[in-house]
Amino acid sequence: MYSRCLKSILLTFVVGAAVFQPGVEAAIDLYPSVEQYLAVDASFSVTCEVPGGNNPKWYDPSGREVLSLSQPGFDIRRYVERSDAEMATLWFEQIMDSDKGTYTCEFGSDTATIKIDVIEPIDFRNTPTKQHLIRGEDGFIVCDVTSYPLPLLTWKFNNFRINEDQHYDMEEGGLKVNSVTMSDKGTYTCVARIKETGDVDQKDIEVEVYELPVFQQTPESTSAVEGRSSQFFCKASGIPAPTIMWQFNGAAITPNEKYSIAMAGNGSSVLNINNVQSVDGGDYNCRASTPIANINASATLLVYTVPEIGAAENKTANEDDEVSFKCTVTKGNPPPTLSWTRNGQIMKFGVQPSDPRIEVSSDDDDLVISIDDVRGGDIGAYTCVAESFAGRTTKDFFLNVEHSPYIDSAKTPSVVLSWLGHPTPMKCVAKSNPAPTMHWEFASERVNNSRVTTLEVNTYESTLAVMPSAKTNFGDYKCVAENDRGKIEHTIILEETYAPTAPDQIHVRDTTQTSVTLEVEEPDSLGGWPIERCKVVFNEGTNGPQVREVFIDGTKLETDMTFDGLNGGTEYTVTAACSNKVGYGPPLSPSVLFATDDYSAPDAPSIVSKANSMSADSYVLMWEIQDDGGSPISHYELTYTDNTIGDTSTAKIIGDISSAVTQYTLKDLKPSTSYKLELKAYNQQGAGDAATIDITTAKGSGGEDPGYLNTAESTKSAFALLLICIALFFQLSMT
Q: Do the domain assignments include residue 481?
């Protein structure tokens, strides 16, 4: 704003003197007469007056006369104007820097001079309004000011004047701040003052205090398996917070399908590398940048690649030839281990123990499998396996062997069992290369489709289905396979089978009123098949009706088996017939005769409770059921007698105890008393034998049981207790 003012007005005057000859009185007056400081584009005039003179003249700093408006060739910006003969006024319009210098008014031998200076306003030309210092270092706040005359500079910090001391040095071009701290952040004001003109201007500078960036965490070298992902971590701090970017082999990384970058507010960054490939191996650099510094930290990614195997060479060989396959790895880091497998089985290095014709060997870095004396069974895939912790790769090498037919014994039987009327398929599998033609022969004649035989032929197998209708349909069937390399024949015997013969014998091992235990012996002839099951039939008496039919598994033969559901005191006959795939054979004849036991009263129960009761007035009697005599137990009867009395006429009888229970509780017994207990079981035949036990009840709570005290003692005891109660009552009343 000061500079604008200086363009229109005169600011400062300094004394200038007219130049006189020594000893001569001044004859020229200048108005004004002092040195002038004028702004560019300002207008100014100075008047030269010579009393009694006539037409004084003005000369510029180069000594040329300044012309008046009436003179040809005058300068419209700088000219002389005369109001009368004694005065000459020098005018300046839109003064320029080229106008500065000393101007002289001359009259005769007298002269007077005035100096014109063109001032330059205060200009903060290269003074950024935002600057920074670095914590811990010496800093410099730039204030680049130009003016003419030169200005004087002073400084303020947050509106307080700065004095030069150990922390501040006022230097040319700015302010030096020593050992910067965070408290040096704020507003600095650079004040410029021109002493000669009094012009003052100032500029505010916002100063930030920065910290150099440092790494809190640097990326670490790592490794990754091809096809997987990998990460690098980086964290940096500083003021202002640094900007983190990633580089790969010196080139900036931008997020895409390959790279993703995750930033966090705490200055950390994560670089994710997706679907790592071998070309991704190299140096990854984390660059943390602030306006004052860049720092870098690098790490290396080592890529482990999944092995790759070169092209497989499939081969065709003849029988007895020698053939080999070579497995070559074309890629893989780390170098993989190689192996050969056949049908999923790893083949050992060297000669194979199971087949000395086959050997696995090495050829530099390749693995070779060699087969001598090639056979038809060698046809198929030989798999090379390349494996490392980076992954596993396999490649099949196929061997085709042209050979004469051979029979696949694992799929082709030598004997097939059948029986009359049963359709029976016989499969013959023959391997050869080229594929064989196949047919069947029986009794030296070629077999064709007929009522008895049906043929089905595929590439490497032929199935002959035979429906035996007569014994002549059984015998040797010949499978014939041939190609241009040879011929092979294989005989399958169709063997007739039969139903089993009758069981050899039935043995009666034990009987009860309702069951029998038998052993059925295996038939002498099984008929060619295992026994599947047998049917056991019971008849009442020798010629009575069938009463039971039971099927048993063939594995139960010649073991003891118990059959229930029979009646007591009854004769039965039993027979059995067994079956296999063909059917049932004849039953055992004659049948075996046996009789069940007669019905009887139940056996005595088995008492299992202890003789001593835990209670003084009760006892829990427990028992186990024994043989019921062939008919269900209807109820139990319990008799108990006080042994201390010894009179059986006092016995007490409980005669309706349910057959569904196996324990009973006697109550209202006397303490410390011996009792005799008798327990009987009843069925339709009546009462069985009694089970007996002598028991003793426990003592009463008063030690000697009151039941054993005589009447006099009982009376004394009662009277004594009464006296004690009366005494206690009166004692309580007195208190």
A: yes
Looking at the predicted structure, is the pLDDT value of residue 732 above 80? no
- Say whether 5 sits in a helix, a strand or coil: helix
Q: Is the pLDDT of residue 14 over 50?
A: no
pLDDT in tens, 503-514: 999 999 999 999
Residue 548 tokens read as 């039971």
The pTM assigned to this predicted structure is 0.44
| 362 and 448 share one domain | no
Whether residues 28 and 90 share a domain: the answer is yes
Q: What is the pLDDT of residue 2?
A: 34
* Phi, psi of 122, deg, nearest 5: -65, 130
Total residue length of the chain: 735
Q: Are residues 551 and 591 in the same domain?
A: yes
Torsion of CA 597, 603, 608, 609, to 10 degrees: 160
Segment 382-405 shows an average pLDDT of 93
Render 591-614 in DSSP notation, one character per residue.
Answer: PEEEEPPPP-PPPPPEE-S-SB-S
Is a pLDDT exceeding 60 seen at residue 9?
Answer: no
**Do residues 428 and 479 make contact, with C-beta atoms less than 8 angstroms apart?**
yes
Residues 688 and 648 occupy one common structural domain: yes
> Could you tell me the pLDDT band of residue 256, with boundaries at 50, 70 and 90?
very high
Residue 27 pLDDT level (bands cut at 50, 70, 90):
confident
Q: How many domains does the chain have?
A: 7
Kind of pairing between the strands at 350-352 and 78-84: unpaired
CATH number at residue 245: 2.60.40.10
Shared domain check, 95 and 7: yes
One domain, residues 112 and 141 = no
Tens-place pLDDT, residues 294-353:
999 999 999 999 999 999 999 999 888 999 999 999 999 899 999 999 999 999 999 999
Q: Note whether 293 and 237 are within 8 A (CB).
A: no
Look at residue 441 and tell me if it is in a domain: yes
User: Which of the listed residues 120, 148, 178 is the one where a domain comes to its end?
Assistant: 120
Q: How far apart are CA 100 and CA 98, in angstroms?
A: 6
Using CA atoms, how far residue 662 sits from 77, 475, 605, 628, 658, in Å, is 148, 69, 9, 14, 9
Distance CA 346, CA 349 (A): 9
Whether residue 532 is found in the same domain as residue 569: yes
Cα-atom radius of gyration of the chain, to the nearest Å? Answer: 67
The DSSP symbol for 650 reads: G
Token digits for 486? 């040879």
Range of the structural domain that residue 28 is part of: 2-120
Please say whether the dihedral angle defined by the alpha carbons of residues 724, 730, 731 and 732, taken in this order, is positive or negative: positive
Sign for the pseudo-dihedral over CA of 598, 599, 604, 608: positive
For residue 211, the one-letter residue type is E
299 with 227, same domain?
A: yes
pLDDT at 457 over 60: yes
Q: In this structure, are residues 599 and 630 in contact, taking their beta carbons and an 8 Å threshold?
A: yes
Q: Which of 124, 148, 162 is nearest to 199 (CA)?
A: 148
Output the CA torsion sign for 500, 506, 509, 510.
positive
